[in-house]
Specification:
about 70% helix; mainly alpha
Length: about 110
């Protein structure tokens, strides 16, 4: 009966997304007020800058690792090794089938 359209249907997923936007007036105000900030306010902003710099460095290191020539070269090398082993196993299997299969079939006749 569920195939005919009766029964419960799954509901769509909903997400609580609040879009961020850029406020040029607020950015301009921060830039103009920077010389007048106290040491405590500067230290809070410096901590935020450090956090963003650390966060950005993680993203860069992950992205460059997989795009490096050394990583690509190691992938090619491992792919070649897997291919050689696979071809060797297939050749060995074919050899044993061609060599011993006729004798094995004759035993049943």
């Amino acid at each position: 009966m569920a195939l005919m359209g009766f029964g419960k249907r799954p509901k769509h997923r909903s997400f609580d997304y609040t879009p961020r936007y850029y406020d040029p007036d607020k950015d301009d105000l921060k830039r103009r007020m920077a010389p007048y900030l106290t040491d405590k306010e500067k230290s809070v902003q410096d901590a935020d800058a450090v956090k963003s710099r650390i966060r950005g460095s993680f993203k860069r290191s992950i992205g460059t690792k997989y795009e490096s020539d050394l990583y690509k070269q190691s992938l090619r090398r491992s792919n070649r090794i897997v291919m050689i082993v696979a071809v060797g196993l297939i050749a060995l299997t074919l050899f044993f089938l061609l060599e011993y299969l006729p004798e094995f079939l004759e035993a049943f006749d």
